[in-house]
Design brief:
Length: 442
C-alpha cells in the first residue's frame, strides 16, 4: 500500500492480529539460549520454594529477553506475550506479575545460586566460541551508582557521590566487554572490594585456568589486602593509588631527567616516570615494595597560565614486561570499563532497580549481566559485529532483534515473514545461518 486516502488521519487502528511478532529478531538470541541450555541450567541452579519458585528458568529468561529488546522494568516483559511473539523464543514467556512475585521471593542465597548459573552460562558460551580463547586477559573492576528515589528501597544509601542508590560492583573482561561477575551492595560504596576481587578471580581461574590475568582498577579498590588477594590467585595488578603523603613524597623525589614525555591531548603535555614506595608490610601477602608509576600533566598556552602546576596520577603495578610509558597506556585503557557499565545501564535494564527489596534487585542485576552478555554472544556467534570492536547492545537490538515480523502457516510450514528492504537483512541472514549450528548443550 503506497498511500492511504486521507493520509495518516485515514488510518483505522485495531489490536487484533495474533500472528504478529513484536521482536522477531529474538529468534537469534532465542536460538543461542536454546543451544546453551540456559532454561534448564537456571532451573537446576535456582531452587526457590513455593508457587513463586516454579519454573525459574522461564522467569529469568523472560526478564533477559525483555532486557535484550529494551525492557527496563518488570512490566516490560508483557511485550513478549503479545501476538505470536513467544513463537521465536525457546520457552513460554511468563506474565509480569509472575516475574515480580518470583523476584520478591529471592534471598541472598538464591542470588548466589543465580550467580552460579551465570558462571556456568559463561563457561558454556566460551566453550562454543562466543568469546575468544586468549593467553592474556585483563579484568577491569569498577563500581557504579544506580540512583533511586525515596526511602522505600531497602539497602539503598548515599555514597561518596552524594547520590541515593545502590552501588553494585562489576568485573568486566576488557577485550569483549562481557560482565564476568557482579555484586549488589547495600549501604555506602566503600565496602566489599577485596572479597569481590577474590570471587571474580576465582571465577576467571575456573573459566580460563591457564590465562595470564591482570586486574585493573581505580583508587577506590586500592588496599594492601587487595594486592595480596590478587597475588594469591596468580594474577598481576595495575591499580591507581591515592595521592597520600607517602606517594607525594615519592613523586617529589623523582629526578627531573627521569620523566619521559608521552603523547597527550592538544593544548597540554604529559610525562611519565617510575619509582618505588615502601609499604612497610611483612608476612601478610602484600609486597614490601611496590612499583609506582606516575603520570604528570599540565596545560599549555593561555590556559596554562591559569593552572601552571603539574597534576599527578599514580598507580602501582607488578607488570615487569611493561616499561613506564607502556604501563601508563595500558592503565589508562581501564577507562573502557565505563563503556560496559553504560551499556549495562542503558541497554540491559540496569538503569532501574525495580523492587523495594534488596535481594530482588540483586537478582535483577544478575539478569542484567546475563542479558548484557547474551547480546555479545549472539553478535559474535552470528558474526553480526566486527570481532575487534566492542559490541554496543543498542546496535544489535535496533538492527537485528527489535524487528517486526508475522508468523504464517503456508502448506503446513510455519514461516516468519520479515519487513521487505530491511537494511540489515544480510547481517540477519548470516547470523541465522551460524547460530543454529551451535552444538546442543545440556
Amino acid at each position: 500500500m503506497s498511500s492511504v486516502p486521507g493520509g495518516i488521519d485515514g488510518l483505522e487502528v485495531r489490536f487484533d492480529d495474533g500472528s504478529l511478532v513484536a521482536d522477531a529478531g529474538l529468534l537469534l538470541a532465542g536460538t543461542v539460549m536454546s543451544r546453551l541450555g540456559l532454561e534448564a541450567l537456571v532451573g537446576d541452579a535456582v531452587r526457590l520454594g513455593g508457587p513463586a519458585g516454579a519454573g525459574p528458568g522461564r522467569k529469568v529468561l523472560s526478564l533477559v529477553a525483555s532486557m535484550l529488546v529494551g525492557g527496563r522494568c518488570i512490566d516490560d516483559t508483557g511485550r513478549l506475550r503479545s501476538g505470536a511473539s513467544g513463537a521465536v523464543l525457546p520457552f513460554e514467556p511468563v506474565a509480569p506479575s509472575t516475574v515480580g512475585s518470583f523476584l520478591r521471593s529471592f534471598t541472598f542465597g538464591h542470588v548466589r545460586q543465580l550467580d552460579k548459573a551465570a558462571e556456568q552460562a559463561l563457561a558454556r558460551a566460551w566453550s562454543v566460541g562466543a568469546a575468544p580463547a586468549v593467553a592474556e586477559m585483563t579484568l577491569d573492576l569498577d563500581s557504579t551508582v544506580c540512583e533511586v528515589c525515596g526511602t522505600a528501597k531497602h539497602g539503598a544509601a548515599y555514597g561518596h557521590s552524594g547520590v541515593l542508590g545502590y552501588h553494585p560492583l562489576v568485573a568486566v573482561r576488557a577485550d569483549t566487554g562481557e560482565v564476568l561477575h557482579t555484586r549488589m551492595r547495600s549501604g555506602s560504596s566503600e565496602r566489599g572490594h577485596e572479597h569481590f576481587a577474590r570471587e571474580a578471580l576465582a571465577r576467571v581461574r575456573r573459566l580460563a585456568a591457564d590465562a595470564a590475568v591482570t586486574v585493573r582498577a581505580d583508587a577506590g579498590f586500592f588496599s594492601y589486602g587487595m594486592i595480596a588477594a590478587i597475588g594469591a590467585h596468580g594474577a598481576s595488578y595495575s591499580i591507581t593509588i591515592p595521592h597520600n603523603a607517602k606517594v607525594k613524597a615519592a613523586n617529589e623525589a623523582i629526578d627531573d631527567n627521569a620523566w619521559a614525555p608521552i603523547a597527550y591531548t592538544r593544548g597540554g603535555e604529559a610525562q611519565v616516570a617510575e619509582t618505588t614506595i615502601d609499604t612497610g608490610r611483612r608476612g601478610d601477602g602484600a609486597p614490601a615494595k611496590l612499583r609506582l608509576i606516575t603520570r604528570r600533566s599540565r596545560l599549555l598556552g593561555a590556559q596554562g597560565e591559569l593552572w601552571p602546576d603539574w597534576r599527578y596520577h599514580s598507580f602501582v603495578t607488578d607488570r615487569a614486561d611493561l616499561d613506564p610509558v607502556a604501563a601508563d597506556a595500558y592503565h589508562r585503557a581501564h577507562a573502557t570499563v565505563e563503556l560496559a557499565i553504560r551499556d549495562l545501564k542503558e541497554n540491559a535494564g540496569l538503569s532501574r532497580c525495580p523492587s523495594g527489596r534488596f535481594c530482588a534487585n540483586a537478582a535483577w542485576l544478575a539478569c542484567c549481566a546475563l542479558a548484557h552478555n547474551l547480546a555479545r554472544w549472539t553478535a559474535r556467534i552470528g558474526r553480526a559485529h566486527p570481532t575487534r570492536q566492542l559490541t554496543v547492545a543498542a546496535t544489535i537490538r535496533n538492527r537485528l532483534l527489535a524487528m517486526p515480523g508475522r508468523l504464517v502457516n503456508h502448506s503446513r510450514q510455519h514461516i516468519l515473514r520479515l519487513p521487505l528492504n530491511w537494511p540489515w537483512q544480510n547481517t540477519f541472514t548470516t547470523a541465522l545461518t551460524h547460530t543454529p549450528n551451535l552444538p546442543q548443550l545440556i
